[in-house]
Amino acid sequence: MISFLASHYFQIGTVILFGVGFMTLLLNNNLIRKIIGLNIMDTSIFLFFITIGYTGGREAPIINGAFKGIDAYVTPIPTGLMLTGIVVAVSTTAFALALTILFYERFGTIDLSEVMDSRGD
Length: 121
Known about the structure:
Layout: H1 2-7, H2 9-27, H3 31-53, H4 77-107, H5 112-119
Helix pairs in contact: 2-3, 3-4
């Protein structure tokens, strides 16, 4: 068990980071803090996939000169997928912040508990 933890500490760290983001999302009523929690979760997922896709001792798939064989290069697909995910995460964050501004203009607060209490009256 100890050897597993020692050899997979990056993945364990990303799972802990995901938990921090998830708890931030659940425990806060402030919309900005919820968006920050989502961003922490996004980042932890990107880090998790990057750590899993890492292969030591291999080069980037940029061929300068002679081709060294398939086993000499890192697969570029995980990196490309993570770059796409980052673009989607930034777009989603911008959209969520724009909706938060509209929410504030309509209700005068970004605290969800205040809005739910005022709607119950």
